[in-house]
Design goal:
This protein is about 55% helix and about 5% strand. By secondary structure, it is an alpha+beta fold. α4 runs parallel beside α6 and α5 (about 125-140) packs across α7 (about 175-190).
């Protein structure tokens, strides 16, 4: 399988981490993709032109990161990073949605500053997106992810926190010691964490 991604993409880090957790890294070759390059085959592999996109052995493709994680879980026998039992499954999916939502808002903030020159930037838009991130991070401080499981939710939240550190530099830790502690412990126990760090 070929994973089209960049080494800085937080959404692309999700399947890379998942593969490490599931022992599937050896079956996945990372092929760098540039979503801004209209000649990159990415746009034929995924009409949305987004990373990550997984190219299977038969040439068919899977996207987005949530679908790829579910596929990897299936390849590993199922129920490993996406629990089968309904209560645990929906809790994991909801936590993944929260982590992905932090990323969606963070990516929009980054794009606003990447693509718009200073005078054209909307402070209101940036504040609106930052509000989503703050509320989600506060919710995670009240109820941090698990210290024992590594499910899709823990993976998504870790990728979101890594992205904030790498791209935005917000101080999310000072007011959220429980979440900061969780992240530190997750970084130490999750296979592939250091190897998949954005660079
Ligand atoms: N919901 C998607 C989001 C993927 C996403 O937004 N990826 C970014 C890079 S981190 C991207 O490809 N951006 C290019 C674009 O939106 O054109 C997922 O979970 O895979």
């Amino acid at each position: 399988m070929i994973l089209r991604t960049s080494l800085t993409s937080p959404f692309g880090r999700k399947p890379r981490l998942a593969a490490a957790v599931l022992g599937l890294s050896g079956r996945i070759e990372v092929e760098l993709a540039d979503f801004l390059d209209e000649t990159d085959s990415l746009r034929r592999q995924n009409p949305l032109g987004k990373i990550p996109t997984l190219v299977l052995a038969d040439g068919s493709t899977l996207y987005d990161s949530r679908v790829i994680l579910e596929y990897l879980d299936h390849l590993a026998g199922g129920g490993r990073i996406l629990p089968s039992e309904p209560a645990a499954r929906f809790a994991a999916l909801r936590l993944q949605a929260l982590g992905d939502g932090i990323l969606d808002a963070g990516v929009l903030r980054r794009l606003e500053t990447m693509f718009r020159d200073e005078p054209l930037r909307s402070a209101g838009w940036l504040t609106y997106q930052s509000g989503k991130m703050s509320r989600a991070l506060d919710a995670l401080e009240v109820a941090p992810p698990s210290d024992s499981d590594i499910f899709v939710g823990e993976i998504a939240v870790a990728c979101a926190l890594g992205f904030i550190d790498f791209r935005l530099g917000d101080d999310w830790r000072s007011a959220r010691p429980r979440l900061a502690g969780w992240y530190e412990r997750f970084a130490a126990r999750c296979p592939g964490f250091a190897e998949t760090a954005p660079r």
